[in-house]
Specification:
Its cofactor is Zn(2+). InterPro entries: Class_I_gatase-like, Peptidase_M14. It comes from Pontibacter anaerobius. With about 850 residues, this protein is α+β, with helices and mostly antiparallel strands. The chain has 24 helices and 37 strands. It folds into 4 domains: about 375 residues, Zn peptidases (Aminopeptidase), CATH 3.40.630.10; about 100 residues, no CATH class; about 100 residues, Alpha-Beta Plaits (2-Layer Sandwich); about 220 residues, Rossmann fold (3-Layer(aba) Sandwich), CATH 3.40.50. Strands 28, 29, 30, 31, 32, 33, 34, 35, 36 and 37 form a 10-stranded mixed beta sheet that branches. β30, α20 and β31 form a beta-alpha-beta unit. The radius of gyration is 29 Å and the shape is globular.
Length: about 850
């Protein structure tokens, strides 16, 4: 405490960092409740870690060591591994309750889950049921006060003694996730610990507070895991959600950090930004729980605020997902020291202080949950009863989706939906809606009359009207649009329960096959399948010669082959006909494709297999820029897609290394959203002119345009200065012009190489910026265009809606022998935008074959 006071006094006196260069030695008494007593047989965090909590940033392996030790020593704690990260770090969930409850834990779990079943919940006696509280710490790895507070929380719950703790553990079951993002946590802890001086430096210019790109916020592939509760694209999220639904908690806490100059925030957030699918009772419960946080923070003298800044609209966040599952999600945001001690407008902010606030609100949450136990249990029971009643009255009785040409995309959406404990069925027999036929083999039906009715609506609705015009996150995430699947909302007029066929209790990846047996001539497969690019890449990895059809053709059996069909000749390969047949069987099965054996090149209609319009393909040798200036989210999404999902080998090159790199090794350059001021535009221009393909997305497309690399033009967006406005409205007025994330309709030129594999001219695209790309004067340079009535779901201001109409979504320019492909939007958004992944992959695989005369010539710009 003495050294903390030294820091605080020094800050008040305005003394510099040298004057406050002290070592933080914070005793447990700084954190723990003064009235509590502790079992001396339970080791303290210092006994295990070798240092006081807050003196160093705990690494993930140290956190794991501590949690394992606590579980082995305390009969109040059990430990379960629920998954592994991309870097193979274990993800743990601790179950903390009384020894008596542990002996009966499976029965208690089963009984608690019955609360969410309206057919059974009315029989339950709430007076005797424990509340279930989930504590989630530091989903963002560089917001470490949460995970470090979990050390104190577990110690307190394991070692505290007396009737109060005994009663708490008897009446609550606590599920504690000490580190939601181990990879990011370790990256950050390594940085700040390795840059920590023996005598603490609080000057915010210190390198300790400026971690290296991509920083520790994100997971291995640079994803924000706090946006993945709905999409479930990462092992951390999938494992966590399985445990969430195994227990169905009543309260879930989500411990975060914010800017250093802030104080402490707890929910509720801004009331007008609640998702309308969340019942009002949830907001009232959140307010009531907030009174416990306020009382606890008042007691230790910490400042805080609530009902400002943050919202509960997007259900893909940890603090909001519980709200649509009968629970109460609570966001905590602590001002971040971003190291061990840093100057702020409120004085020197120390790491121990940030940890204490997180630990204090951990205890206040448990106090609230215990005091409001029956109220929270009743809310959960009533939530699901009311949801089912709403479903019975709703106009939409079911949703159907599927794809005749691409079973894999439909499979992956069904896979996500099943993980949310939503019932999925196959149609009993084929039926038609809006001229689309849905079959038992290709489609799935989601009846809305089930307890998860509200979550189903959240995943399928196309909302375009909102109470508020500001959003903390995206305003639309309609899943069938994200997957670009044929879909329909079914009313009582075109849906009866008798249409439900087999219930999908388990999903099998769609089968692939070689049709027609072994060929001594050639094989083909169409580009419609989601994993067709992966299949092509696997063949290229084996050195297999491939070609692509730039026009249609048909065979004697009447089979029609579309633009983008891949041709694999049997002769001229580095393996014999038998080996090629075996390889294609493996590739077809792994990628859910039908590969067709061809016995002649003489096709009755369209191009022949030996036509010059069967273009030879060169394997993409991809480099992607990363590092300073690059948006790590967008870059990570592209990296994840190529590496994890499609088995490619992109070489990640730092922007600082680009100017000295040997670019002749590569034929494709990926530039994600960002600013690239530190790379040589002359070197890039020369590389493209020699035949390279550069793909610029978002701000990278704008950078290419600004630097004359490709003939790309953007609309100039001028601020509105027409009228005087109140200063108090500045945040709302400017925020309303932000496109935080909405879905728009575009049209495709299905004959263009970048549109190969698509069968519908309409394509939903996700947009989250205000970059509006002008239409080219060339009639061939824009294979994807926004329509004249583009808004499909989400929020956009009227002025911005007018600006986006009829603009280009993709522009292709020639530059010498190379191509410049510009996309103002991100086709790989959060890894679940399956519908536009093919635009990005086509740019990689087919950019090389785009005719120079079909693109906008660079010379037009000079």
């Amino acid at each position: 405490m003495k050294n903390l006071r030294v820091l605080a006094v020094a800050a008040m006196l305005g003394l510099g960092p040298v004057a406050v260069a002290q070592k933080i030695e914070t005793p447990l008494s700084y954190y723990l409740p003064a009235e509590a007593s502790y079992n001396s047989n339970i080791p303290t965090p210092k006994d295990i870690l070798g240092y006081n909590v807050g003196e160093w940033h705990a690494s993930h392996d140290q956190l794991v060591m501590f949690m394992r030790e606590m579980a082995s020593l305390s009969d109040r704690i059990s430990l379960t591994e629920y998954g592994r990260t991309h870097e193979n770090r274990p993800l743990y969930l601790l179950t903390i309750t009384s020894p008596k409850n542990h002996q009966n834990i499976e029965q208690l779990k089963k009984q608690h889950v019955q609360l969410t079943n309206p057919a059974e919940s009315g029989k339950l006696n709430l007076k005797d049921m424990p509340a279930v509280v989930w504590m989630g710490y530091s989903v963002h790895g560089n917001e470490p006060s949460g995970s470090n507070a979990s050390l104190l929380a577990v110690y307190h719950l394991a070692a505290a003694q007396g009737p109060e703790i005994e009663k708490l553990l008897e009446e609550t079951i606590i599920l504690l996730d000490p580190s939601i993002n181990p990879d990011g946590m370790n990256r950050f802890a390594s940085w700040v610990n390795s840059h920590r001086s023996k005598n603490l430096i609080t000057d915010n210019n210190s390198a300790e507070f400026d971690e290296a790109w991509p920083r520790g916020r994100t997971n291995h592939y640079w994803f924000d895991l706090n946006r993945d509760w709905l999409p479930l694209q990462h092992p951390e999220s999938r494992g966590r959600l399985a445990k969430f639904h195994e227990w169905k908690p009543n309260v879930l806490t989500d411990h975060h950090e914010m800017g250093t100059n802030a104080t402490f925030f707890f929910q509720p957030g801004i009331p007008s930004r609640n998702n309308p699918l969340t019942p009002e009772s949830n907001f009232k419960l959140t307010q009531k729980i907030g009174t416990y946080h306020a009382k606890a923070l008042d007691k230790i003298g910490s400042f805080y605020y609530t009902e400002e800044s943050y919202d509960d609209f997007y259900y893909g966040k940890g603090s909001t997902y519980p709200d649509v599952n009968g629970a109460v999600g609570i966001l905590f945001e602590q001002a971040s020291s971003r190291g061990h001690a840093q100057e702020s407008v409120n004085g020197v902010l120390t790491f121990p202080f940030t940890i204490r606030n997180q630990f204090t609100t951990t205890l206040s949450t448990l106090e609230a949950a215990q005091a409001m136990r029956e109220e929270l249990l009743a809310h959960q029971r009533d939530f699901y009863k009311n949801s089912l009643n709403e479903a019975k009255k709703a106009k939409t009785k079911a949703y159907v989706f599927g794809s005749e040409m691409d079973k894999a995309r439909a499979y992956h959406l069904a896979e996500i939906i099943r993980q949310h404990q939503i019932e999925v069925y196959r149609p009993k027999e084929s039926f038609k809606v809006d001229n689309v036929t849905y079959t038992p083999e290709n489609a799935y039906i989601i009846p809305t009359e089930q307890p998860q009715h509200r979550l189903i609506e959240a995943m399928f609705e196309k909302r375009t009207t909102f109470q508020d015009s500001l959003f903390y996150d995206i305003s639309a995430w309609t899943f069938p649009l994200a997957f670009d699947l044929e879909h329909a909302a079914l009313s009582s007029r075109n849906f009866k329960s008798g249409q439900l066929g087999q219930k999908v209790d388990s999903l099998a990846f769609p089968e692939g096959e070689v049709v027609g047996g072994k060929s001594d001539y050639a094989y083909t497969f169409e580009w419609h399948g989601y994993y067709a690019p992966r299949a092509l890449n696997q063949l290229m990895d084996r050195g297999i010669v491939t070609r692509v059809a730039t026009d249609k053709f048909s065979t004697a059996d009447g089979k029609q082959y579309d633009y983008g069909t891949i041709l694999i000749p049997v002769t001229g390969q580095n393996i014999n006909a038998d080996e090629l047949h075996q390889l294609l069987q493996e590739v077809a099965q792994k990628n859910a494709l039908k590969v067709y054996a061809m016995n002649t090149g003489f096709t009755p209609q369209g191009i022949k297999l030996g036509s010059p319009m069967m273009r030879s393909l060169e394997q993409p040798r991809v480099m992607m820029l990363m590092g300073d200036g690059v948006n790590s989210y967008d870059a990570g999404e592209a990296w994840h897609l190529m590496d994890d999902r499609f088995g490619m080998r992109p070489v990640l090159i730092k922007t600082n290394d680009f100017n000295r790199a040997d670019l002749s090794k590569y034929n494709v350059l990926v530039m994600a959203e960002g600013s690239y001021s530190n790379i040589s535009k002359e070197k890039l221009r020369s590389w493209v002119q020699q035949g390279g393909t550069v793909i610029g997305m978002g701000g990278a497309a704008k950078w290419l345009a600004d630097n004359g690399i490709g003939n790309i033009k953007f609309k100039e967006v001028k601020p509105d200065t027409a009228a005087q406005k109140p200063y108090a409205d500045i945040a709302n007025s400017e925020g309303a012009q932000v496109i935080g994330g909405a879905i728009f309709e575009t049209t495709l030129d299905l004959t263009h190489p970048l549109a190969y594999g698509y069968t519908d001219k309409k394509l939903p695209i996700f947009r989250s910026n205000t970059l509006f790309m002008e239409r080219s004067k060339s009639p061939y340079a824009n294979p994807v265009m926004y329509t004249s009535n583009p808004l499909m779901a989400g929020y956009i201001s009227s002025p911005n809606l007018q600006k986006v109409k009829n603009t280009a979504a993709v522009d292709v320019s020639t530059l010498g022998a190379g191509k410049v492909i510009a996309m103002p939007d991100n086709p790989n958004f959060r890894a679940f935008w399956y519908g536009t992944n093919k635009l990005f992959l086509n740019s990689i695989f087919f950019g090389q074959i785009i005719s120079g005369s079909s693109a906008r010539a660079d010379e037009d710009a000079h």
